[in-house]
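Researcher: Next entry in the queue.
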Amino acid sequence: SVIFFSSVLVVISLLSLSVVSDGERGILDLYISMDLKWWEYSLGKIISYTILGFTISMLACIILLLITNTNIPVEWVLILSLLNALFHSSIGFIVSSLSPTRNIASLVAVSLTGLFFFMSGTIVPVSSLPESFKMVSVRTFPFKIVYVLRKIQLYGASGISKEILYLLLWCSISLALAIFLGKIPLRRK
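Model: Structure for this entry, 189 residues:
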């Protein structure tokens, strides 16, 4: 889970401030005057931060492999790291698009990061949570991505197609919402 959450910390915290900062510095006005389409702006931000998050995950994976004797299926780590970076980049963009100020964006980003750590089962085992929290936690992206990696490490890659489809659904929904919300900061004044 260190591999995944290293990118979460960076991607959500940086991207959640990105759109707000563009607005405060007048860059959004420049994009509007250049007739940049809202979906181009959204995709550009999300793709660039997805690449950043993926790179950070890969560096964390390399460091983990160098200092431990961990059996990590690298091909699956690549796929899961890409999905993880895409999901969290989309969430960071959503936060930044909806936040009126940097302070609010920062507060929401820190809160979401803490919530994602909690929901993943990394800090507190999900089995020890109250039943209502457990029901919610096991359906979240952070839990599922850690669960899939653990399942692959213990049992191999067979039988994970349902979980991968579930992660792809989370990514698709968050990406579609993020792209659509790109309209908000770029609306004509």
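Model: The helical segments are 2-24, 27-33, 38-67, 74-98, 102-120, 131-137, 141-155, 161-181.
Researcher: Noted, moving on.
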